[in-house]
Specification:
There is one protein chain. By secondary structure, the chain is of the alpha/beta class. It folds into two domains: 128 residues, Flavodoxin domain (Rossmann fold), CATH 3.40.50; 40 residues, no CATH class. 43% of the residues lie in helices and 22% in strands. The chain has eight helices and eight strands. The longest helix has 16 residues. It is elongated. The termini are close together. Bound molecules: flavin mononucleotide.
């Protein structure tokens, strides 16, 4: 099999859980974006990042390495609190990627979207601030979707939808 590396950026660990599982299953090297040095030795790169306020965490790393990545098999996975099984959420995630990354890179990559986790009490100060604005906006809404309800629940109880079995299709795709 081609030599593969899994590169990730993870603030609270959920993307890292998927990345570690994928690397183990593929017997690939695993790096955070802070650790990774030379990707020239890899034929396949799997990149994972969380979704933060409608943006892919670490999209700067992808853009910085764009020229090299365009010559490799590239897989991008996202990890977010919105349920990627919901077609509307999936559509939004793809729209975020189009906004964050150049079209060439998005077209070149195979994208997979996974469900993440959120523990409001453990968030960094700036992230708590962003989430407070989100909660206030949701509270002003007259009707709440199932996704809004999940978001509101995050305020009081940690939610964790990470399920590494979601990564099986990605693993199969890399092996193809
Ligand atoms: C400030 C903030 C903004 C977020 N924005 C989104 C978002 O726009 N869409 C989404 O699906 N999840 C959003 N999330 C949830 C994260 O994507 C989720 O917690 C993910 O599991 C984080 O992965 P990580 O811990 O590996 O960085 C947000 C979380 C925080 C703290």
């Amino acid at each position: 099999m081609a030599k593969a590396a899994v590169v990730f950026r993870s603030e609270y660990g959920s993307t890292k859980r998927y990345a570690s599982y994928i690397a183990e299953k593929l017997q690939a090297d695993l790096f955070s974006t802070d650790e990774v040095k030379d990707i020239s030795v890899y034929d396949t790169i799997v990149y994972g990042g969380g979704i933060y306020a409608g943006a892919l965490n670490g999209s700067d790393w992808l853009q910085k390495n764009k020229e090299a990545l365009l010559h490799k098999k590239l897989i991008i996975f996202t990890c977010g609190i919105s349920d990627p099984q919901e077609p509307k959420n999936l559509e939004s995630i793809h729209a975020y990627l189009k906004k964050n990354l150049t079209e060439e890179l998005v077209c070149h990559a195979k994208v997979f979207c996974f469900h993440g986790a959120l523990d409001y009490k453990k968030l960094k100060f700036t992230h708590k601030g962003i989430m407070t604005v989100v909660f206030q906006a949701l509270k002003r809404k007259k009707e709440h979707s199932a996704q809004d309800e999940v978001m509101l629940k995050c305020r009081d109880v940690p939610v964790d939808f990470v399920d590494v079995s979601q990564a099986e299709a990605l693993i199969e795709f890399v092996k193809e």
